[in-house]
Amino acid sequence: MTPTIAKIVWTVCVIAWYVIRYPYERKAKRTAVARSRRDWREVTLLTISLSGLGIIPGAYVATGFGRVGDYAFSASRAWAGVAVFALSLWLFRRTHKDLGRNWSVSLEVRDGHRLVTEGVYRHVRHPMYTAFFLWAVAQALLLQNWIAGPAGLVGFGTLFVFRVFREEAMMLETFGEEYRAYARRTKRLVPWVF
Ligand SMILES: C[S@@+](CC[C@H](N)C(=O)[O-])C[C@H]1O[C@@H](n2cnc3c(N)ncnc32)[C@H](O)[C@@H]1O
C-alpha cells in the first residue's frame, strides 16, 4: 500500500457508495413527499457534510495540496482504512435496502411512510449515520493528511449533531407512540452501546 493507492481506494469506495445509493435515490424521487423540514439549516448541514466527505478529500486526491498537511504514511493504517470502508459500504447497502422508499437525503416524510424497525434498524435508529461515521474514520485512515483526513469526521459530525434531534422529533411527531417505543428499545449509532 502506498499513498497513491490509498487515494485510489478512497475514490473507488466513494464511487461504490454512489452506485449503491443511485437506484434508491431514483425510487425515492418517485414517491411524493408528504412533509418536509428541508430548510436553510438542512441545506447548510448537507453542504458542510458534502465538503468534509467529498469536496475537501476529493481536492486532496486530485491535487495533493502541495503536500501541505501530509504526515508519515503508514501502510497498516491505510489497510485498516480499507477494512473500515468495506464495512461502511456493506452497512450503506443494508440501510438502503431496509429503508427502501422511506429513504430521503434530508428531513422528509413521504406518502405512505412506514416506520422501519427491522433489519439493521432492529437495534439502532441511525445505522446510515453509523455508516457515514465509518466512512469518515476510513477517510482519516486512508488519506494521511491533517486537512483531508479528519475533514469527514468534522463535516459529518456537524451534520449529525445538528440534525439527529430534529429528525427524531419529526419521527415522533409522525409515528407517535410507535416511535417512542422504538426509541426506548434501540440505541442511536452502535447496538447496545450508544
Ligand atoms: C438520511 S435518512 C437517515 C435515516 C436514519 N437516520 C439512519 O441513519 O439510518 C433520513 C430520513 O430517513 C427517514 N427515516 C429515519 N429513520 C427511519 C425509520 N426508522 N423508518 C423509516 N424512515 C426513517 C426519515 O424520513 C428521514 O428524513
* Cα-atom radius of gyration: 17 Å
Number of helices: 6
Strand residues, percent:
under 5%
Q: What's the average pLDDT?
A: 96
Q: What small ligands are held by the chains?
A: S-adenosylmethionine
Order of helices and strands: HEHHEHHH
**CATH class descriptor name:** Mainly Alpha
Shape verdict:
elongated
Helix fraction, binned, reads 55-70%
Q: Characterize the biggest β-sheet.
A: 2 strands, antiparallel
* Helix/sheet category: mainly alpha
Low-confidence runs of at least 5 consecutive residues: none
Number of strands: 2
The structural domain count equals 1
State the CATH topology: Four Helix Bundle (Hemerythrin (Met), subunit A)
Architecture per CATH nomenclature, i.e. the level-2 architecture: Up-down Bundle
Give the N-terminus to C-terminus distance in angstroms: 34 Å
**Widest sheet: strand order?**
1-2
GO cellular component, one term: membrane
Protein name: Protein-S-isoprenylcysteine O-methyltransferase Ste14
Pfam families: ICMT
Keywords: Membrane, Methyltransferase, Transferase, Transmembrane, Transmembrane helix
What does this structure look like?
- With 194 residues, the chain is mainly alpha-helical.
- The chain has a single domain (3-30, 39-106, 114-185), classed as Four Helix Bundle (Hemerythrin (Met), subunit A) (Up-down Bundle).
- It is 66% helix and 4% strand.
- Strands 1-2 form a two-stranded antiparallel ribbon.
- Helix 1 packs parallel to helix 3 (75-99).
- It is elongated and about 50 Å long.
- The model has no long low-confidence stretch (mean pLDDT 96).
- Bound molecules: S-adenosylmethionine.
